[in-house]
Amino acid sequence: MKLVKFILVGSIFCLYGIGSAAGVPSKAVDISDVKWVTQNPPSSEDLATSVHVIEFWATWCGPCVKQLPHINSLAKEYEGRNVIFIGLSVDRSFNDVCKFVKKKNFNYNIGMDNGLSDSLNVDAVPRAFVFSHEGKLLWSGNPDNAQFEDTLKSAVKAAPEAMLVGVDLGKFSLLRIKLCGGKNFTKAYSELEAHSKNDGDSERNFASSILEVINNKLREKIAAAQRKQNEDPKAALQMYKEIIDNYGGIKLTAEVESMYYQLQKEIAARMPEISPAEVKAG
Q1: Are residue 98 and residue 138 in the same domain, yes or no?
Q2: Which of 103, 203, 229, 258 has the maximal Cβ count within 10 Å?
Q3: Is the domain of 151 the same as that of 174?
């Protein structure tokens, strides 16, 4: 592989033309100690249920700076979806990064590397990592590699559907990722419910309107699964399971679990009995 230029700062290189990297172990990403440059950053809990892209870069790295508009445009493209973009600078100076960021219009979260680059074996920048909504490392390499966007697109498709794309959440915008579904969904939904039931809350009507959008989307999902039962029971079973996994724990989806187990019994009852001879032959 041809390297046009490199700059050594500490133990991290700035490389032109570096390709996809493989063999990096998948591990939980902890951003609790990150010193953030931008406002309203995500939490480690948010990453646990969202597709996330983490890119390591530096202000002194030419290829990194060149890639920033690319990452920025992707963050804008996936805005409101179940995706979190994070740029962690390996610069030594927090002030230098702050000054750099002030000159740019970033659509994603920027912070200082908290040692995560070491745990992910980053020895050169720019280096991007794509993780699934379940925390599995899917791809790692230079963000100018075509596989970067392909992997991201596939990961978003496999993640819980974003139900609030284009919906103004106002002061509840920080709940957007959690409301996409997953283990944080119930808590975020309950928070909206609390606001909607509080007569003295100035955001009561706003919270109620957001809940109405979510509830309508969930009703559509449940109805679609019910319609699928006669045509393809196994597909319907999977649809029920996805609703339970991603949106369970609230009143609206409480009966879905019963539907799931009932359909499971019906499918089992329809299966032909297997004779002892067939079992032995298998």
Answers
A1: yes
A2: 229
A3: no
